Amino acid sequence: MPVTKIDQIETLILDxxxxxxxxxxxxxMRAQSAVLVTIRFSxxxxxxxxxxxxxxxxxxxxxxESIRSAIDTYVTPAxxxxxxxxxxxxxxxxxxxxxxxxxxxxxxxxxxxxxxxKRLGVPVAQLFGGAVHERLPVAWTLASGNSETDIAEALEMxxxxxxxxxxxxxxxRSVAEDVAHVARIKQAVGAAASVRVDVNTAWSLQDARxxxxxxxxxxxxxxxxxxxARYRRAMAExxxxxxxxxxxDEALNGPEDALEVAKARAADVFAVKVAQSGGLKKxxxxxxxxxxxxxxxxxxTMLETGLGTAAALQxxxxxxxxxxxxxxxxxxxxxxxxLAEPIAYRDFCVEIPKGxxxxxxxxxxxIRFFRRDGGRTLKA
Length: 380
Ligand code: MUC
Ligand code: MG
Description:
The protein is an alpha/beta fold. Helices cover 38% and strands 20% of the residues. Residues 198, 200, 224-225, 249, 271 line the site of magnesium ion.
């Protein structure tokens, strides 16, 4: 049988507005910019992938523009002509040539798995040993910047049976104001919902000591990345010092970080993100390290569109225990859907897409409309 080669790797940036301002400690998002990767193989098959970050360069070292440029300038020339079925070989080859740039690598790797799954006629979950879940619990992030708006949004989500896990974005205001905001929301939703917070590294250790005490008294169950990513000892102090669960997010950039966080006991929970890990394979390694070290797991998002969300769902469907559920709500934060068939959300869960590859098909009109370098002709 002839080898199926990688013929072409195309990238483009999509800018899709969010349904409301998404107020985070380091940026307010009004749109999400996703790098869409399309790989064309010599047998005519096609794989798609996505790389996103949050708030330009305010979240991490990669931006939509750098993701696209890393792929076009360095990854594409190295992979053109490579055996498309040799996903592991391709990942290892790129790892030798390109340092860092995990989101760029993840976007390409997802497209490789998607192409392979489609050629074999199986979902990507099958390539990772098979799905053990058909649906997963899914959180929603309350980040309007206003307590009353957040409460109304939360109550509506519970009523719709769409979400009963809420992650509140804090860290922009004073610790006392943030704790009061969280307490009001927890009081409004009561036992009907789990309330957690994400500080996105905004606190000092001193802030965090007051913050964690106040949050746990308010009934908040978990605090995500209160301190900067490199403060492992301080994160370990918080983890050991309070009942509220501490989750690592920005601290986890791939398996090597996972090992260091595990050794330092610098969290109770791993927020595992496909993009931040460097792809599905590396995310599976982060998961394995977390499991082996006795950490709880959570499926994290970089607010991907339906495409990246479908890819993440393929992997997380194979994970036995996700004690803290997932936050794969990215497509719901956007004003428009780019998949021909949207991912389904019901009964507080997200459903794992079926079909070969990552189980996602793009709507070409929407891609034309939202692409940065053209389009905008679609009549809604
Ligand atoms: C983050 O830091 O976890 C995930 C959900 C959300 O609202 O923002 C992201 C980023
Ligand atoms: Mg986070």
